[in-house]
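Re: weekly structure request thread

Next one in the queue (100 aa):
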Amino acid sequence: MKIAPTLMHKLILILQSHSLSGWFFAPSFGVAAIFRFILFFQGFHSWTLNPFHMMGVAKVLGAALLCAIHGATVENTLFEDGDGANTFRAFNPTQAEETY
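Done, posted below.
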């Protein structure tokens, strides 16, 4: 049984709410509650101007872009060429099976 995450959530709930002067600012469950907490945390601490946070966001978004580009490239090369010598120029969408 995983008790540690629940205990950690309760500890953060109590400590964070007391440090920010109210229960309204404490983190809670749910997407809307997380966004509300992030909004108020930003208001008190200016977290998004932290250069390490900026680098982390750039890495996550850059990795997502690279994954999307890689997936599109792989998906496009799973088909045999139709009339072109280049795999990105033509393919046959009615091909029976994938080629690697």
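Residues 50-100 form one domain. Helices lie at 4-19, 31-45, 51-76.
Next request, please.
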